[in-house]
Every structure is written in C-alpha cells, then in structure tokens.
Design goal:
3 strands, binds nickel (II) ion, Rossmann fold, mainly alpha, globular
C-alpha cells in the first residue's frame, strides 16, 4: 500500500493488521554528468514501490527526498538541509506516525551522507523518552538499500572495478531501469574518477570537478539495475516482515 494513494480510513484499517511503515529517504543532489539529481531518493523509492507492487503487504510512506547534501551545493540543482533541521524533521515525521499507532518505522536510505544524521535523529528520539522516564512507543530502523541481503554481493559481481562511492554505476543503473527515458551518456576523463575527503561544497567541487567520486557511471545498464532491484525487493520484503514480528513495543 502506498500512503499517498490511500485514504485515512485505508490507513486506519492497515493499522489493524500492521504497525509497520517503510519510509524511503534520500537526498536531492548532483550525481555526476549523467546521474539524475533524484538518484538517492529515487533508488529507495523504486525498491519500496516495487516491493509493494510485488504483492508484499507493506505500507510505504512519502519519500523523504531532501537530506544531507551540503557538500554538493557547488553543483546546480542540489538542495540540502542542515543536520539540525534534518534531525528535527525526522522527529516530526516519527511523532506524526507514532500518534496514529505506528510502532515500527523503517527508513530505507539511499544516501551515505544521511547515515550519521539519521542515527543522531534516532538517538534524539530515544533520549526524549529516556529523559522523560517513559517508553518511546516506537522502534526505528535504518537500512541502506545497498546493505539489504544479497545486494552488495551482486554489486561487486556486476561492477568489480569503477563502482566508487558517488554517482556509482549501481545507483545509476537502478534509475536507468525505472526511468529509461532519462538515460544519458558522457565522455568521462578520467574514466574512473578520483576519490578524496568530503568537506564543504567549494572544496568538493575543486576535488571532484564533474561530481563523481571513484566511479565510472558508463558501466551502468538498465539490465543491471533490474537485477539489483529484484535482489533488493526480496531483501526488503523479508526484513520488513521480520521487523514487524519483533517483540511488542513498549
Ligand atoms: Ni547517490
């Protein structure tokens, strides 16, 4: 079930049989000369929506599509929020869902730069409960789509070299499969981009002039993307089901 295509009464009925919701979360940021700005939120959204389409009885919430992208602000089209804002907004999403009875909130993430701040948001939410000496009433889980069972092994097999860490062929392949009309090509020089530290936006653009980090996006194909989505869908369905079976939430 997709929350944005449901009514409040559909959600009320869903809560009778499940207290779990999946939130795709990512970032709107440059992905090199050929990667879509939405890549990091599109990948988890595509995987979550395909899991729903495949028949799993899951509820997928709206995609949280702007995240920790300050280092990409040297490239037009990037939109970022700061960590304190991200933590506050994640908190408000969680509280909104918890008010209605959701007890297990599973964030399917598509951006490595979000990880530390999502974890910090979880810590803030649990601390609110602990300082108030009361149960939180919810359990939170973060999973990066590439860490779903079976996915990284497939990535290594598909892209033994040139995968890198930003504008990777795996994430671009997924968007190519889902949005074939958007497939783009470019001449890359060097073919595999260099790597380096991540600091502020001006430093990032100076180190990574075309936006890639360690990757060769020309390796991406829609077929590779389809295989990755299929593996991720299997992993997500299994994990969400197991999360829902965890012992009762206080
Ligand atoms: Ni990305």
């Amino acid at each position: 079930m997709l929350l944005h295509l449901s009514t409040w009464s559909d959600v009320e009925a869903f809560l009778e049989r499940s207290k779990t919701i999946v939130i795709p979360i990512g970032s709107n940021e440059q992905h090199g000369p050929t990667g879509l700005l939405g890549t990091d939120w599109l990948c988890p959204e595509i995987i979550a929506h395909e899991t729903h389409k495949g028949g799993a009885d899951i509820l997928v919430g709206p995609t949280f599509n702007v995240g920790m992208a300050q280092h990409h602000l040297g490239f037009p089209g990037t939109i970022s929020i700061r960590p304190s804002t991200f933590i506050a907004v994640i908190g408000d999403w969680v509280h909104s869902l918890a008010v209605h009875g959701f007890e297990r909130i599973y964030f399917l993430n598509g951006h490595g730069g979000n990880i530390a701040t999502i974890e910090a948001a979880f810590s803030e939410l649990y601390a609110e409960a602990s300082f108030g000496r009361r149960p939180a009433g919810f359990a939170l889980k973060l999973r990066n789509w590439w860490d779903l069972p079976g996915v990284m092994a497939l990535v290594r097999q598909q892209f033994p070299t040139g995968h890198g860490s930003h504008a990777t062929p795996s994430e671009i392949a997924i968007t190519q499969w889902a949005y074939p009309d958007t497939v783009k090509s470019a001449e890359y020089a060097p073919q595999i981009a260099g790597s380096g530290p991540i600091r502020e936006a001006a430093d990032f653009r100076a180190r990574h002039p075309d936006g890639r980090m360690g990757s060769d996006p020309s390796l991406a194909t829609p077929e590779a993307g389809e295989a990755l989505v299929q593996a991720a869908v299997r992993g997500l369905a299994t994990e969400v089901e197991a999360f829902g079976r965890e012992p009762k939430i206080l």
